[in-house]
Amino acid sequence: MRKIILSVIGILLVVLSFLFAKNLIANKNKPKPFKQKVVKTVFTDTVKNTTVKVVIPASGSLVAKQRVELYAEVQGVFNYSNVLFRPGQYYKKGQALIKIDDSEYRASVQAAKSNLYNAITGIMPDIRLDFPEVYQKWQTYIDKFDLDKRTPELPKMTSDKENYFINGRGIVSSYYNVKNLESRLSKYTISAPFSGILTEALVTEGSLIRNGQKLGEFINPSVYEMEVALASSYAGLLKIGETVVLNSLDKTATYNGSVSRVNGSIDPTTQTITVYIEVNDPNLKEGLFLEANVNAKEEDDAIEIDRNLFLETNEIYIVRDSVLDVITAKPVYFSDTKVVLKNIPDGTVILKKPVPGAYVGMLVKPFEKKFKS
């Protein structure tokens, strides 16, 4: 029985060996599969060198070109008026913004003016006797003197004797004391230096105002400025009066501005230069954030392509006889998304969009858009 089992196993091994050898011979004679070449379709563009405007992107918020921070120089109670002191209130030039109660101080000013008037009238008899040639001009001065109006300027001295006489009576010192009091009295009323809008109000009518207290902020809403920081390498390219296109963040509004000022110094920390862009539009508000495109210069015989098409080796891919190749280019300006290049001959076929896995020698086929008839 054992011999029979061993014989059967031996026969099976021989049969299996024969079948395995036959399979190996069949696979050896089988022809190798043909590897078909893959040709990628690419988007291309033909180079035509032109004058490219170098536009520098920047951003910033608007600030009123004319703005005033209101501070009190005197102390008193804020008087009520027909126009409420509130944010958004419009005032014309010269209109009173704030009136502080000046009744007590005004009385002291009137007393000083009265003392000056009495002092001048007291010396008129002496002037008539000793200086009859100047009597008339001093009489005219007294006639024009009005306690309810600003004190007129003293008559001009025509001789040393007259000057010594008037100064010796204390007239000149009294006059300048009155002028000083009148100047301080005028500070009880704060008037609008220009037509504009109150943007901040820190006091209300009836409240006590103290010397040095901030009262609010007042701006001219017709002209705004935007401060932007640009790389110092553009310092020599920027010109005052250069047109600037401003866009809102959502790209729904466009405004035209101009470079009004360029700072003469460069920030040593950031190596940037500050540029001020002036813009005038009734729809603008202070604090609005805008994006600016500053025209720095123009590059002749240049092209502009997407930045991701420019290789780290300062080369770009070109298509030559349906094969990818590279050519050296000279970059003159980089933005976030674009690069301006020179030294690329006209008529050169370059890639318009990046090709994944691109290499020199890759077979490509330019994309041809078919139109339906």
TrEMBL record:
Checking Gene3D superfamilies in the record gives:
2.40.30.170, 2.40.50.100, Helix hairpin bin (1.10.287.470)
A Gene Ontology term for the protein's cellular component: efflux pump complex
Q: What SUPFAM superfamilies is this protein classified in? A: HlyD-like secretion proteins
Top-rank taxon: Bacteria
According to the UniProt entry, its GO molecular function terms are: efflux transmembrane transporter activity
Extract the Pfam families matched here. Answer: BSH_RND (PF25917)
Q: What is this protein called?
A: Multidrug efflux pump subunit AcrA (Membrane-fusion protein)
What organism is this sequence from?
Seonamhaeicola aphaedonensis
